[in-house]
Design goal:
By secondary structure, this protein is mainly beta. 4% of the residues lie in helices and 48% in strands. The protein has 2 domains: 299 residues, Thrombin, subunit H, CATH 2.40.10; 181 residues, Exo-inulinase, domain 1 (Jelly Rolls, Sandwich), CATH 2.60.120.
Length: 510
């Protein structure tokens, strides 16, 4: 399974950070299980006709055919990925038809590639009869994405035979757009989508407006809180007011649960143990959502898509927070000029770690493998920082990290940054890999080559900083380890050959 971080979507042209191309496959199997797609049945590609340009509107869907039944405006979006040469349904989400000529509003994470899976095609399925699963009808391309808001607009481009659609006659049942600013506490809400758990047919959930959540840079109504408990597969779907006007999008960013998922699919070796099994992180298809993104935040994307524009807005990441110098005292430092400063050394066919040329160097020579070394002193609450340099890249995908409270090979914390801009905080507990702060990414971290990484492990709070900027913070509610050794680590997935050097290590106690 490739850990390629390019975002490949089925669109035509090139947009910022998103490479797009048109492809078509024929869907096989039912939607109750992981779907298989056959390369032998790929339809011939054909040029896609540009849709008519419509003048933007803020409060209604123009050129729309009102749905006879509300569920006709709700679609299932299936992301097709490739795993070991086989095309499979990686995940699915929901969406709402917002124009008769084929524009669909959904969540960004539903249509974008992630750390381990490249989205090769998007299939749009429609409910003809709510007693049965949605039927695949179209392929779609991405028009607009705001990754920070987790919103996207896609457009259908071809039927399941690869024949381009005629936008002038498409006439899809679009839901009218409402005014999310007019919502009041206690107002009625109806949410529809495809749950992904407890069944495969479209599902309706009723609730009311429970409040609003503010967000820096977004405003006082960044999220609409609802009393409804929404299944995770509804992410990207439809939320309407009492007038059946679209006022929000169920969004997993507003998820208020305990990060437990009812249904998860394991497709990649996310823990680098060489085996794809239940110890790996999975693609969540269940879970629950209790918040909506207001339709007002999606209007600029909708208007731009109606004008035929293609754009990708990357999330900016957390607001810059300077990691202050630890208030405690420095209890250990090492420039690795002496090979007797207490670090373990090893050298095997799979990799090595040890002192070289005034650095502590880690060499990873085997795919899906991690190499680390530890100091010989145990600590409890510590802040560990070190300069890290990529001496040899692993095809731009290698990882480098700091370990704290290392007990043994099966019990420790690790805070990691990868060459491709992704980062994670995780632990091994009794040999089980557990992501505490799951993979996230910042473009500013891509191929930095050299950086200072700081890992703070104080109480049950873990904080990861790069170049004095905090990028991730999480609380381990289990507080699994109270003390242990400090470690320096490097790891790869499919691409071995990573060599990294650590220098100027400092350990503080708060």
């Amino acid at each position: 399974m490739s850990k390629n971080t390019k975002t490949t979507l089925i669109t035509c042209g090139v947009i910022t950070l998103v490479v797009i191309c048109v492809g078509a496959v024929v869907l096989l199997g039912g939607f109750g299980a992981l779907l298989a797609f056959s390369d032998d049945t790929v339809a011939t590609e054909a040029p896609v006709n540009a849709p008519p340009v419509n003048a933007p509107q803020e409060s209604s869907s123009e050129n729309s055919t009102a749905p006879a039944k509300l569920y006709e405006s709700v679609v299932q979006i299936i992301a097709v990925v490739e795993v070991d040469g086989e095309r499979l349904e990686g995940w699915s989400g929901s969406g709402s038809i917002i124009s008769a000529d084929g524009l669909i509003l959904t969540n960004a994470h539903v249509v974008l590639s992630d750390k381990f899976y490249d989205v090769e095609d998007l299939v749009v399925a429609f409910t003809v009869d709510p007693n049965y699963p949605a039927e695949p009808k179209y392929y779609a391309e991405v028009m607009q994405v705001d990754e920070g808001l987790d919103l996207a607009v896609i457009r259908v481009v071809a039927d399941m035979n690869g024949t381009p659609v005629d936008y002038a006659t498409l006439n899809l049942p679009a839901v009218p757009l409402g005014n999310s600013d007019a919502l009041e506490l206690g107002g009625d809400l109806t949410i529809m989508g495809y749950p992904g758990i407890g069944g495969v047919t479209i599902t309706l959930t009723s609730g009311d407006v429970g409040g609003f959540t503010a967000e820096d840079g977004v405003g006082q109504r960044a999220f609409i809180k609802t009393s409804a408990t929404i299944s995770g597969g509804n992410s990207g779907g439809l939320a309407v007011n009492s007038n059946n006007e679209l006022i929000g999008v169920p969004t997993q960013l507003g998820y208020g649960g305990n990060d437990q998922f009812v249904d998860c699919r394991v497709l990649a070796d996310t823990n680098r143990d060489g085996v794809v099994d239940d110890f790996d992180n999975c693609v969540p298809t269940g879970g629950f959502i209790n918040a909506l993104r207001p339709i007002k935040l999606a209007l600029p994307l909708i208007d731009a898509a109606k004008r035929g524009e293609v754009s990708f807005v990357e999330k900016t990441g957390p607001a810059p927070v300077v990691q202050e110098q630890p208030a405690g005292s420095m209890i250990f430092e090492d420039d690795f000029s002496s090979a007797s400063s207490g670090w373990s050394e090893q050298n095997t066919d799979s990799g090595s770690s040890g002192y070289q040329n005034g650095q502590y160097v880690i060499d990873v020579r085997e795919a899906n493998y991690s190499v680390w070394g530890n100091n010989d002193t145990q600590y409890s609450d510590v802040i560990v920082s070190a300069d890290v340099q990529v001496l040899q890249s692993a095809n731009g995908t290698g990882g480098m990290g700091i370990m704290c409270r290392y007990v043994d090979n099966n019990n420790y914390y690790q805070l990691e940054v990868d060459e491709d801009g992704y980062f994670i905080i995780y632990k091994y507990l009794n040999g089980e890999f557990i992501a505490l702060y799951d993979w996230d990414n910042l473009s500013s971290l891509v191929n930095k080559g050299a950086m200072n990484i700081s890992a703070s492990c104080i109480g049950n709070e873990l904080t990861l900083s790069v170049d004095n900027q905090i990028i991730a913070r999480v609380v381990d509610s289990d507080a699994s380890f109270s003390q242990g050794f400090v470690g320096l680590a490097g790891g790869v997935f499919d691409d071995p050959g990573l060599i990294i050097g650590f220098d100027n290590l400092k350990v503080y106690t708060p």
